[in-house]
């Protein structure tokens, strides 16, 4: 079975509108944003499917014990439900699948990347009233419970295993070669989580040139975030040209050149040259 295919243009435009609206709302809904990422990837995910995924998260939360105790008790309860009873966890092969970055598919398959499994943990625990949040360790996303002085970390990729201090140190050192810093243990902002999900999708597509469709919708969603690097416009322009939309790509290249011309005139001129070359492909 191949990877999901994006929806038709009309549905894709509606998904982008809903995503932008939610991303710029006062309190962005992490689950909904991740499900809209899924809808941008998978033309079979409609509004009913998004509602069904939210209901599943609600139902999972309803299976947790009522306020089991402190942070460690919450972490243990989540591991028992999601990791043991429901079988949510990850494996090395999950890094090779686009579905591992799509929340609705993670709910269906019970498999995913660390960050998507962490979204499941956070959303289920939050609905049950737990003091829970994502923790964006470099290279490996985990979940935190409780205030800093009582913080308990759990690794959903490993079925929710509770992490000791040395465990977290090893995760960070393995990913970066650098020691764990206290600043790495703070709660991750929902929008930062979504950007990291989209960056994972872009990384998946980057080594699969035949899936430039995936790279394009991921970049377009990144551009809808309240703040984003200007260079994403250049990336989108390159993808448009790569996919044969030379005119739209040239327009985007010229727009990017205008953005950078004040700070980097040589780059701006080079990009304008690329825009001229793209328009020449129309002749």
Automatic annotation (TrEMBL):
Q: What organism does the record attribute this protein to?
A: Streptomyces kaempferi
Q: Which family does it belong to?
A: Belongs to the UPF0162 family.
Annotated ranges, domain Protein SirB1 N-terminal: 55-199
Q: What is this protein called?
A: Transglutaminase-like domain-containing protein
Lineage top rank: taxon: Bacteria
Q: Pfam families attached here?
A: TPR_9 (PF13371), Transglut_core2 (PF13369)
What InterPro entries does the annotation carry?
Answer: SirB1_N
């Amino acid at each position: 079975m191949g990877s999901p295919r994006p929806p038709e243009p009309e549905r894709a435009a509606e998904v982008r509108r809903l995503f932008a609206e939610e991303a710029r709302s006062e309190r962005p809904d992490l689950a909904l944003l991740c499900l809209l990422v899924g809808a941008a990837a998978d033309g079979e995910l409609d509004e009913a499917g998004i509602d069904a995924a939210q209901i599943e998260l609600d139902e999972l939360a309803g299976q947790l014990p009522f306020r089991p105790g402190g942070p460690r008790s919450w972490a243990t309860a989540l591991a028992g439900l999601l990791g043991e009873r429901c079988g949510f966890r990850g494996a090395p092969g999950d890094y090779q699948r686009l579905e591992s970055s799509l929340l609705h598919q993670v709910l269906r398959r019970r498999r995913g990347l660390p960050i998507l499994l962490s979204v499941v943990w956070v959303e289920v625990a939050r609905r049950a009233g737990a003091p829970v949040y994502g923790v964006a360790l470099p290279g490996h996303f985990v979940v935190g419970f409780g205030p800093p002085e009582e913080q308990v970390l759990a690794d959903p990729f490993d079925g929710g295993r509770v992490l000791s201090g040395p465990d977290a140190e090893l995760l960070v050192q393995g990913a970066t070669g650098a020691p764990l810093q206290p600043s790495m243990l703070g709660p991750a902002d929902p929008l930062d989580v979504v950007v990291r999900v989209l960056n994972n999708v872009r990384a998946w597509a980057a080594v699969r040139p035949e899936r430039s469709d995936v790279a394009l919708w991921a970049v377009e969603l990144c551009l809808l975030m309240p703040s984003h690097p200007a260079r994403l416009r250049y990336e989108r322009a390159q993808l448009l040209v790569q996919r044969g939309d030379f005119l739209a790509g040239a327009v985007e290249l010229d727009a990017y050149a205008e953005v950078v011309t004040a700070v980097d005139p040589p780059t701006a001129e080079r990009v304008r040259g690329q825009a001229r070359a793209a328009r020449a492909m129309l002749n």
